[in-house]
Write a structure and sequence with these properties.
Elements lengths: L1 E5 L9 H15 L3 E7 L13 E5 L1 E5 L2 E4 L2 H4 L5 E6 L4 H12 L3 E5 L9 H19 L2 E4 L18 E3 L16 H6 L7 E6 L11 H8 L5 E6 L5 H10 L6 E5 L6 H7 L2 E4 L10 H8 L4 E4 L4 H4 L6 E4 L4 H13 L1 H19 L1 H16 L13
Parallel strand pairs: 1-2, 1-6, 2-3, 6-7, 7-8, 8-9, 10-11, 10-13, 11-12, 13-14, 14-15
Antiparallel strand pairs: 4-5
Helix pairs in contact: 1-13, 6-11, 9-12
């Protein structure tokens, strides 16, 4: 199969959607498919592209947050048998929809999350959905949410149910695994052997405002025995550093910045608990949760649609009320004070990952979905144009 993934973000940019596309493309290319990733050109660190994948970073004509207008996207799509759109992607989604209609090429969508912006920008999002977004979703051959739990209250509610499926995000359980030696990371951060550590992993930029780091900082201020490691970078880092200072917790919060893919599993291993304190439906799954679970570590997360599918409350972690710093602090303190409970949660989390969330299992589901779409009458590409 010749498959084109279209995504607004991709490594070296740090973000869940790009990470998902990276590993999905890598797994499918390893199975002999011709996989192309079409995304925005990026500055900064040199990219490390997945082996066997043709990554085309297109020039950005204009950008609004994580919505780039890509030059030449329609032309780059020529030759694909099937297009896999990672949604939301303003500008890119409209191009995919128009190209696929004209070329007779089917497209499928991974629906990562609703876009939730503050007023008055929320009006623009609503108008776009009514005029174009709903049409883009309706015309897709398949729309995959990461969990069915997320569908009911989302903008997917109007899509015919027979075209919606659930295919989760995944993790490389060979790299993210229990028992890794994290002593080098502990030494890097000058942590005592008995220092209890809480981990947050997420972008610190405006598009990731919903990650709830401010709530976690308030909670950590109430758990004096814990040190918080913040992995991630972004323009709001200074704001969060100032908040930690204002809360009197600056000496127990370390900002690690951007860490390498090789080091990230070690951070999960080091941490006594990983926390996802997101505060809106902008969080639909929580890739950091399955990464921590793969490393055999317990998790605490906000009880949001989708997230509560990954975290089985009282089995592999705890769910908390979104935005409730007291509840979050209490759940963190419970796991830090009951190591046997934390260990049991971690072991259960690893089992869940092996059963549901390896990239191999995710790729199996997508491969079957692609085949079903391409077997439908009238879905074959009309143009025999090779990449």
């Amino acid at each position: 199969m010749r498959i084109a993934h279209v995504t607004a973000t991709f490594p070296p940019y740090l973000g869940g959607t790009g990470t998902v596309v990276y590993h999905h493309a890598e797994e499918l290319a390893g199975r002999g498919h011709h996989v192309c990733v079409l995304t925005a050109a990026a500055s900064g660190l040199p990219p490390a592209d997945p082996p066997g994948v043709d990554v085309q970073r297109l020039a950005v004509r204009l950008r609004s947050g994580n919505a780039p207008l890509l030059a030449g996207l329609a032309g780059a799509l020529r030759g694909a048998e099937l297009v896999h759109l990672h949604y939301p992607f303003y500008f890119g989604a409209e191009t995919v929809w128009w190209h696929c209609r004209r070329a007779g090429v089917p497209y499928v969508i991974t629906y990562h999350q609703d876009v939730l912006l503050r007023f008055p920008l929320s009006l623009i999002v609503d108008v776009h959905h009514q005029l174009l977004g709903r049409r883009i979703l309706d015309d897709a051959a398949v729309v995959a949410a990461t969990t069915l739990d997320y569908v009911a209250g989302s903008r997917l509610a109007g899509v015919p149910r027979q075209r919606i499926t659930a295919i989760p995000n995944g993790v490389d359980a060979r790299i993210y695994r229990p028992g890794l030696d994290a002593s080098a990371i502990r030494a890097r951060h000058l942590l005592a052997p008995d220092q209890q550590t809480v981990l947050f992993v997420g972008g610190l930029d405006a598009p990731h405002y919903f990650k709830g780091l401010a709530v976690l900082l308030e909670a950590i201020a109430r758990v004096p025995e814990a040190l918080l490691l913040v992995v991630g970078e972004g323009a709001l880092r200074g704001t969060y550093e100032q908040l930690a200072h204002d809360l009197g917790a600056a000496d127990r919060v370390q900002f690690a910045g951007r860490v390498s893919p090789e080091d990230l599993p070690l951070y999960y291993t080091l941490a006594d608990v990983t926390v996802l304190p997101s505060v809106t439906r902008g969080e639909a799954f929580g890739l950091v949760l399955v990464e921590a679970m793969a490393c055999g570590r317990p998790v605490v997360a906000s009880s949001l649609a989708g997230v509560r599918t990954v975290v089985r409350d009282g089995q592999n972690g705890f769910l908390v009320e979104p935005g409730d710093a007291d509840d979050l602090a209490a759940k963190i303190r419970t796991l830090l004070s009951e190591p046997n409970l934390a260990s049991r949660f971690g072991a259960t989390g690893r089992q869940i990952v092996e059963q549901c969330y390896t990239w191999q299992r995710v790729a199996d589901q997508w491969e079957q979905t692609y085949e079903q779409v391409l077997d439908q009458p009238g879905s074959r590409i009309r143009e025999a144009v090779a990449w």
